[in-house]
Design goal:
The protein contains six helices and seven strands. It has a single domain, classed as Alpha-Beta Complex (Spore Coat Polysaccharide Biosynthesis Protein SpsA, Chain A), CATH 3.90.550.10. The termini are far apart. It has a seven-stranded mixed sheet with strand order 3-2-1-4-6-5-7, sandwiched between helices. It is of the alpha/beta class and about 210 residues long.
Length: about 210
């Protein structure tokens, strides 16, 4: 179903993975420092900041925006982030299967360049999203490495299932393992700049600095 801002004849999609903000269910690793309400408020602010960057991208090029959520329901998500986007549930499966399904469904829908991002990287900008989409014209895989060893962005032009299998999700080796598999597959990979995720109490000082910029 097309939304009011959906543009036709596009071949690019950006997918945002996020959660509905409920205290005690989001940013749980920050609860010792911020409490359930504070952690939830931070998650809400970061997701809204990411959506603002998506809005900037949307008005500059014909890209489809999909928000894949966990928790809540579509009505609550639209009330929170607006009704201008595609909304889908992530589903109950392990993370690797959820990521793979998001890409697979995008390609089945006819998109040729697909980028997936999270909502906990406040350094992710519209310019980086544009750069990732542009790289997919000449590369098989685009990765945005996070300083904690994961990645804040992954983009591809066709489904690459091995990149979602046997990955130690939630560890500092996620990006390394993904790049290792990509090398074994002979993929042409490009890396974006390394950015910080805001996941742990020690990351909060960086968040305060970013808010001042």
């Amino acid at each position: 179903m097309k939304t009011s801002l959906e543009k036709t004849k596009n071949s690019e999609r950006v997918i945002l993975f996020t959660r509905y903000p409920e205290p005690g269910k989001v940013k749980t690793r920050l609860v010792p420092a911020l409490g359930p309400e504070g952690s939830c408020a931070l998650h809400r602010q970061m997701t809204e900041g990411t959506v603002k960057q998506l809005q900037k991208l949307f008005f500059l090029r014909p890209v489809s925006i999909e928000i894949r959520y966990d928790g809540g329901n579509q009505g609550l998500m639209q009330e929170w982030l607006g009704s201008d986007w595609h909304f889908s549930t992530q589903g109950p499966d392990p993370l690797g299967l959820r990521l793979e399904r998001a890409f697979q469904e995008a390609f089945q829908a006819g998109f040729h360049r697909v980028v997936l991002i999270g909502s906990d990287c406040p350094g992710l900008t519209r310019l980086l999203l544009e750069k990732a989409l542009n790289h997919l014209a000449h590369h098989d895989l685009v990765l945005g490495p996070a300083r904690d060893g994961g990645y804040y962005l992954i983009g591809m032009g066709r489904i690459l299932r091995p990149l979602f299998v046997d990955i130690p999700w939630g560890t500092e080796t996620v990006c390394h393992k993904t790049r290792e598999i990509a090398r074994e597959m002979g993929l042409n990979v490009v890396l974006l700049e390394t950015l910080d995720d805001i996941d742990r109490p020690e990351d909060l000082a960086l968040w305060e600095k970013l808010k001042e910029v």
